[in-house]
Amino acid sequence: MAEAEEQETESLEESTDESEEEESEEEPKLKYERLSNGVTEILQKDAASCMTVHDKFLALGTHYGKVYLLDVQGNITQKFDVSPVKINQISLDESGEHMGVCSEDGKVQVFGLYSGEEFHETFDCPIKIIAVHPHFVRSSCKQFVTGGKKLLLFERSWMSRWKSSVLHEGEGNIRSVKWRGHLIAWANNMGVKIFDIISKQRITNVPRDDISLRPDMYPCSLCWKDSVTLIIGWGTSVKICSVKERHASEMRDLPSRYVEIVSQFETEFYISGLAPLCDQLVVLSYVKEVSEKTEREYCARPRLDIIQPLSETCEEISSDALTVRGFQENECRDYHLEYSEGESLFYIVSPRDVVVAKERDQDDHIDWLLEKKKYEEALMAAEISQRNIKRHKILDIGLAYINHLVAKGEYDIAARKCQKILGKNAALWEYEVYKFKEIGQLKAISPYLPRGDPVLKPLIYEMILHEFLESDYEGFATLIREWPGNLYNNSVIVQAVRDHLKKDSQNKTLLKTLAELYTYDKNYGNALEIYLTLRHKDVFQLIHKHNLFSSIKDKIVLLMDFDSEKAVDMLLDNEDKISIKKVVEELEDRPELQHVYLHKLFKRDHHKGQRYHEKQISLYAEYDRPNLLPFLRDSTHCPLEKALEICQQRNFVEETVYLLSRMGNSRSALKMIMEELHDVDKAIEFAKEQDDGELWEDLILYSIDKPPFITGLLNNIGTHVDPILLIHRIKEGMEIPNLRDSLVKILQDYNLQILLREGCKKILVADSLSLLKKMHRTQMKGVLVDEENICESCLSPILPSDAAKPFSVVVFHCRHMFHKECLPVPSMNSPAQFCNICSAKHRGPGSAILEMKK
């Protein structure tokens, strides 16, 4: 029996989930648990009949007339034997210091829990309801109401006596009452009334909708959302009423307040209790269902729904079926819903059970996500609310997520999540790596291992490298490239690679990886040798990075064979480490590579390799003739005789022509152009470059019996030689192609020359005239002569100190000034005077412009 009771006291959520045929994917809004401890003991021998809730404690009434005060865990703190029969209702004031109790035998008690004041009365009929004033603790508010066949208001007078007054009667038993502020709401067989205790007026009457239901079996549920909003639930109908102040102009004989129904809607089941939850409603419903087998009605589990009221309907937010003890035997009137406003706690009371519903917190939300295996969402929720969660740790959720992914076989995702979840915890990283090793998935976690902060034990990295080395050379090479060399024991991995190369000595991937490992180990010589063998592009980077120039002095040919361009650039950039002489010597047996090196050296600096220019003539002639002529033109150090000899041997006409002209043998060069190349245009161009009349004469003599050459000369000679000289020498009767066009061109060129000369003459005359006028205007201007000027000959002031004395001054256009007596006497042949200073400096003598006398 005890074991059965323990099972019953488990979480109500678990019981509900077990009995559901299909699990909903929608997360519940509330969580449930049974009120145990003292409540369990009470309900084993008795049955709950009513309950009221205060923020500090609970008050539970039973069918055997007992009232128990309980703490929020359900432990009994006080017990009152009120009556031998059922307790119908318990009421507490807001302070929790006064309690009112009524029972089925007509007893009414109102007493202070911490004071001696009491009210005892026994009526001749069952008293169904009682409500004490919310501020009963105040002396001015010593009021309470009771209800049986009529609603009575009890007030304590100034003599400490209680007087009663009837507020309402004649409409059957009063079965529900709620007091909030100055308003009392109650329900009888006909409907709901609201009474204003201040104005002593009844404000409204809200009639019952479904009169077919027995009011004793389906009682009305009332609750105040606030001081002016009343929620009424009766049968399947819900009404939300708002108490409003009436405008003064509408008063007349009407109450000062009126009630407006702001929302009204129907529910699917019978209402046993109501409670507000922010702008939503919590509804406890009594459910009857029809058995598919017997087709008879039976009492199903009650439901607790959260609904969103609208003006004429409602929206269901959540709905939970509750497994309470003895629900098969309960009626609608046996259920009650009480709530604690301060903590959003809801108490579902039935004869054999008390269940507490709470709003789910973030921990509960995470619990639900984990239960539904939504680990990623749970992890995100925990990270967002990490300050608010109490029962969960982000790390624990993350580890559970990793285990879940591994169990599903999603190894790559699990490994990727390790980065975020494990963070910098090296111990956890190592633990997870061993887990991945056990399931043969080390490769999956390898890309995500930490490489800096934290750093794991070298054994971890070596274990993964060995895994790749056994099955995936490319993956092994990738890890070696990506992982810093200090993560693992380099010598261990080098030895492992060597062992594998014994089986496959030509494997390029392993060789390249071994070279990288040698580099990490600073064994650059071995690394360089492997790179050169593989002709790997990183060889140049390795040489530069680690300054391995001393190691490559005997490997220059290998480097040039691999990539001559990069090799030459590297050698030229580091002449101070490998001299030009050394490179040329190393390439002596490979003249084609020698040429590449010397050619690029010459391009960089025409003078650095001057000692090799003679050698380069042969190299250019053999391997790169197109660049021979530019080399001959740019080099000032190559021997011309040697070059001419080589070019003549190989019959290089253009190069020979250039060398002959450079050596001063222009006539031989021109003859070679005419006889070897037969190119009149090139001959004419050559004659133009040399600008030698004898060359033009030779060219005319050679061309005089060759009509095509004559045409070329006629078209190009006009600006250098008088065309008449050529025309006079043309034999009569010789047919010359395009002669007319050539003559027209000569005439046009002549006319153009004449026009150019005339144009230049006009411009020159105009400029000369303009400058002459400008000079004349300048010379006509006066010249200031004052005490500061000196004679350029005697260097004394130009003006005498005594202005009365006669003096004579000569001022030239160049602004030099002299005393007349300081100038030489002009001769008879040249009477004009000139400035001695300007004449001496060869700047042209300035003539005198002014002679001052006094």
Automatic annotation (TrEMBL):
Coiled coil feature spans: none
Gene3D superfamilies, per the entry: Tetratricopeptide repeat domain, YVTN repeat-like/Quinoprotein amine dehydrogenase
SMART domains tied to this protein: CLH
Ranges: CHCR repeats: 568-712
Endpoints of the signal sequence: none
Keyword Protein transport: yes
A Pfam family annotated for this UniProt entry: TPR_Vps41
Cross-referenced InterPro entries: Beta-prop_Vps41, Clathrin_H-chain/VPS_repeat, TPR-like_helical_dom_sf, Vps41, Vps41/Vps8, WD40/YVTN_repeat-like_dom_sf, WD40_repeat_dom_sf, Znf_RING
Origin: domain of life: Eukaryota
Composition bias, Acidic residues: 1-26
This protein's name: Vacuolar protein sorting-associated protein 41 homolog
The gene coding this protein: LOC101397462
